[in-house]
Amino acid sequence: MRRILAITGRETAFYIAVAFFVFVCAFPFYWMLITSLKTNSDLYDVTNIPFWFTEMPTLEHFRYLFEQTLFGRWLLNSFIIGVCVTAITLVTAIPAGYSLARMGGRNGEALGIGIFLTYLVPPSLLFLPLSRIVADLGLQNSMWSLVLVYPTFTIPFCTWLLMGFFKAMPPEIEEAAIVDGCSLFGAFMRMTVPLSLPAILTVVIFTFTLTLQEFVYALTFISSSDQKPVTLGVVTDLVRGDVYYWGELMAGALIASIPVAIAYNLFLDRFISGITGGAVK
Known about the structure:
Blueprint: H1 2-37, H2 40-43, H3 60-67, H4 71-102, H5 107-119, H6 123-136, H7 144-149, H8 151-167, H9 172-179, H10 184-195, H11 197-213, H12 216-221, H13 230-237, E1 239-240, E2 243-244, H14 246-266, H15 268-278
C-alpha cells in the first residue's frame, strides 16, 4: 500500500510540474491572443477582468495592423532576410565545421573555440565598425545591410555546433565512400551531409529564429518603414511617444511568433538530436 501511495505521489508531482511548465510556456501566447482580440474600451478599463472578455471580441486590431501599417511588408522583409542569412550561414558553416572537425591535433578544436568566442561579442560593441562597412558599401537604410551583418553572429555559433556534430561522426564512413570511387568532396556530399541533416536542421531553425528576433542592428541601420523587419516595425511604428497600441502590438507579436512556435514543435525531435549530437564531443 505504501509503495502504491509513493508511486501515486511521484506521478502526481510529475503531472503538477508538467502542468506548471505548460502554463508558463502557454500563458504569453494566451495573453497575446486575448489582448489582440479585445476592444479598446475593454482593454483600457481597469475595472474589467484582464484574463477574459468583458465585451465581444473584435478583429479591429488585426485590420488596423494590415490596413493602416506596413505589417505585411515587414513580414516579407523578415522572411527574405531570414532565408538569405540562413543560406549564407549554411554555405559557410557546413564546410567550415567539417574542415575544423577533420583537422588533426588540437588546432581544430582551439580554432573552433576561437570562432565561437566571436559569437559572444555583444552587438553594442560591433555596430559602430559594422556601420562604417555598411556605409562604404552603400547599404544604409536597406534591409540588405542586415543580410550582410547578421552572418557575423550566426556563422560562428553554427560552425562550432556543426564541428561538434561532425567530430561525433566516424571518418570511416567517408573513407569507405572514397574506396568505392568517390572523391573527398563527393564523399562529403553523398555521405556526410545526408547523415548530418539533424544538425543542419538545427542550424536552419536557430539562424532563422535569431534573425527574426534581432533588434539592435535593425534599429541602427534602418529607419525607412518599408525596409524594416517585423521586430523593428512593430515596435517603432506602434509605439508613439508614450502611446502604446497594445492591441496591435500583441496582434503583431502573435502573428510573428506562431510560425516559429509551429516550426519548433514540428521539428523538435530533430532539433534536439542536432543539439545533443553536437555536444557529444
